[in-house]
Design brief:
Strand content: 15-25%
Organism: Sphingomonas populi
Helix content: 25-40%
Largest sheet: 10 strands, mixed
Mean pLDDT: 91
Shape: globular
GO molecular function, one term: transferase activity
Oligomer: single chain
Pfam families: Glycos_transf_2 (PF00535)
Keywords: Transferase
CATH topology of the largest domain: Spore Coat Polysaccharide Biosynthesis Protein SpsA, Chain A
Protein name: Glycosyltransferase
Distance between the termini: 54 Å
Number of strands: 20
Radius of gyration: 28 Å
Length: about 550
């Protein structure tokens, strides 16, 4: 019978396990402390909301509890520190010997302090990236730097500011991605900031390529590699030469595919470009006829406010189709019968409420080149809203256009739709004040989105009909607008959120909250249809991010 091995061997075999347990304990301790600190911050900042979230969790309403907790916990100044404890490891994959040349162009500005350049140059050297310093005491210009680059090797350029550093492995991640994309024009990554103490703060988990957003917010420059030409580098000048290099690369690469996003924090920065709030929309010179479709049932006060707002709207040719879904209130019927037939058409459509059916019937009868789907509880604020939305809808690459909608108290009700929130879809940035910064002012910037709400939506009639209109069978009440937008997107007609058209939406005043058993069952069926058709239960919205919380309409870090 074999004897037990000597004790010294036994302890030697335990050593790796003991080391692993020690490492786990050392990681768990700060994680547990930070978790407690984040919850304490949330409870102190919003005690009633925090207790409500705890109550929902006790009641077994896990999705509702997580949705409540998401925004509360993320507001803690320690939230990102907690996320960093479990930061996903960077795995570039691919060929570890990928030999794609990258040349860093370090913007020293007017600085001559070695302390600003030293960490950047050290970081680049560790990643095996050649560095050329522009500006600084020698005043090296981009044109002069171009003479020191081996252009015959088709290098990728990495503009970076003095003081910024790369994450370990960033160079290899860029090389592997560059080898895969071949003739692509730009590869960009996520970033965060370094505070005065060198701590990582304020991450920017970026969307997939969004050309419309980029017009107002340069989220590439300083956190990307770009394939620019020598002539491009020789032409740029001034303090913003780095942004000009990126713009030149995008222009040269047009038609070769969009910029590629690496969804990892590869750059730790001392500063980053800021969003530019948009100027007024130059309206199209010839706005086509538009048919505004307003479904309603009773609700005279809401309907009157909506139609009076349409009467104040500055647009050359508007047809208003009121789809009456069985109104029986005498005052409402009198009002409908008294509408001016030169401007209004009343389509009688009694029967069970089916939002998709009501709009589809009107769309087939409409004479306008554009359709505007409009809830009867919309309140017009400014007369130019329809012209703005129509101008955007006329763009060749655009499908559905959605407005920024506010609750009556001024908070945001709709700023685009994000897929995957709580397994379905939800309105982005809901309940924020319009003048808050939020997530890099995304609620205030025109941008492509996966979908917009049909509470106020403009689309070309021919495109609406080309995709079959709203789905009356699968989405009678909820998610029909999201499904429509996704089908338009699939045709190459991308949904667009336009905050310069802002209206008030008295949401759910006219329809209720689906709390009755029949409504709840219908909503559950429509949610399941969304998951099956558009993978909202598992997939990530391309304009959102895997590291943002899937239980919050706010763009907050997932914990």
């Amino acid at each position: 019978m074999p004897t037990n091995p000597p004790l010294r061997h036994s302890s030697g075999n335990r050593a790796p396990k003991d080391a692993a347990r020690a490492a786990l304990r050392s990681r768990y301790r700060p994680c547990a402390w930070l978790t407690l600190r984040v919850h304490l911050d949330a409870a102190i900042a919003a005690p009633r909301a925090y207790l409500a979230a705890v109550w929902w969790r006790i009641c077994g309403k896990r999705v509702r509890a997580r949705a409540r907790f998401a925004s509360l916990l993320s507001a803690s100044p320690h939230a990102y520190r907690l996320w960093l404890v479990g930061e996903p490891a960077l795995d570039a994959g691919g060929d570890l010997n990928a030999c794609v040349p990258i040349v860093a162009l370090v913007d020293a500005g007017g600085q001559n302090a070695e302390s600003a350049l030293a960490p950047t140059l050290r970081s680049l050297a560790q990643e095996g990236i050649t560095a050329l310093v522009l500006g600084g005491p020698d005043g090296v210009t981009p044109a002069r730097a171009a003479t020191g680059i081996a252009w015959e090797q088709a290098p990728w350029l990495l503009p970076i500011a003095a003081g910024d550093v790369l994450a370990p492995g960033a160079g290899q991640a860029y090389r592997v991605a560059a080898a895969r994309v071949g003739q692509g024009c730009c590869i960009y990554a996520d970033d965060d900031l370094l505070d005065a103490a060198g701590r990582r703060v304020k991450p920017h988990f970026k969307p997939g390529w969004n050309a419309e957003l980029f017009r107002h917010f340069d989220y590439l420059t300083g956190a990307c590699v770009a394939r620019a030409r020598r002539a491009d580098l020789e032409r740029v000048e001034g303090p913003h030469w780095a942004a000009q290099v990126v713009a030149a690369a995008l222009a040269a690469g047009e038609g070769q595919g969009p910029p590629i996003h690496l969804p990892h924090v590869l750059h730790h920065r001392r500063g980053r470009p800021q969003p530019r709030l948009p100027a007024a929309v130059p309206l199209a010179s010839a706005l086509p006829p538009v048919s505004v479709i307003v479904p309603t049932r009773n609700g005279l006060n809401l309907l009157r406010t909506c139609l009076e707002g349409l009467a104040r709207t500055n647009y050359p040719d508007v047809e208003v189709i009121v789809v009456d879904n069985g109104s029986d209130d005498p005052a409402t019927l009198t009002y409908l019968n008294g509408l001016d037939p030169a401007r209004h058409r009343v389509l009688r459509a009694p029967g069970p409420f089916n939002f998709s059916t009501l709009n589809n019937r009107a769309a087939h009868l409409a004479r306008g080149d554009l359709l505007c789907l409009l809830n009867n509880d919309i309140e017009v604020l400014a007369p130019d809203w329809l012209g703005i939305m129509a101008t955007q809808a006329l763009r060749e690459e655009v499908g559905a256009v959605g407005a920024r909608l506010l609750y009556p108290d001024g908070r945001i009700q709709h700023a685009g739709v994000v897929l995957g929130i709580c397994g379905g879809a939800a309105h982005a940035h809901r309940l924020m004040q319009p003048d808050q910064e939020g997530y890099f002012y995304r609620h205030a910037l025109p941008q492509f989105v996966s979908a917009v709400t049909a509470a106020c939506l403009v689309v070309r009639r021919e495109r609406f009909l080309a995709v079959g209109g709203l789905d009356e069978a699968s989405f009678a009440v909820s998610f029909n607008d999201v499904d429509l937008c996704m089908r338009l997107n699939a045709k190459g007609w991308q949904s667009l959120y336009e905050p310069r058209a802002t209206l008030v939406h008295h949401e759910s005043v006219s329809r209720g909250f689906d709390r009755d058993p029949v409504g709840a069952a219908r909503l559950a069926g429509e949610l399941e249809a969304m998951k099956v058709r558009w993978n909202t239960g598992e997939g990530v919205d391309p304009f959102h991010h895997p590291q943002l919380n899937r239980f919050s309409e706010r763009f907050v870090v997932g914990l």
